[in-house]
Amino acid sequence: MLTHTAAGLDLPDDVDMPPAHYAVYVEARRVDPCQGYTLLRLGPYTQARHASWDADRIDAALKGQETAVRPGFRVSARPTPFNVSDHQLHTAPYETDAVALLADAVRTMGS
Question: What are the contacts of 33-36 at 24+ separation with CB within 8 A?
Fold first, then answer.
């Protein structure tokens, strides 16, 4: 699937989903980049600019508190290719506000 995205091709539609190419991952990482986890996955986005826009909005909402959300970790968002095989792990970005989804994920993480 990622090779299709890298080549700029539509993803196969045999998984009963419309073609999509992009996602946003909100990750909590320690200083050591090998240690961390994905806090939130948003997608699919059909346009890179929409994924980048949501990632930028999340990073702006985190500005000044990237390390306070999860002590010992730095939280940030990044656009990434959408992996259709993981589609059940993603939250549809068009149904709600990305910053509100982050706030819910942070609240859930604290419980």
Answer: 36/73
3-state secondary structure of 45: strand
pLDDT digits (tens, 9 = 90+) for 10-33: 655 555 555 568 999 999 888 776
Tell whether pTM > 0.85: no
Residue 63, token pair as written in the block: 């500005």
Q: Long-range contacts made by residues 19-22, C-beta under 8 angstroms, separation at least 24?
A: 19/46, 20/44, 20/45, 20/46, 20/82, 20/84, 21/45, 21/46, 21/47, 21/48, 21/81, 21/82, 22/46, 22/47, 22/48, 22/50, 22/51, 22/79, 22/80, 22/81, 22/82
Please say whether the beta carbons of 83 and 21 come within 8 A.
no
Between CA 71 and CA 74 the distance in angstroms is 8
Number of continuous H segments (helices) and E segments (strands) in the chain: 3, 3
What are the structure tokens assigned to 74, written together?
């730095």
- Give the total residue count for the chain: 111
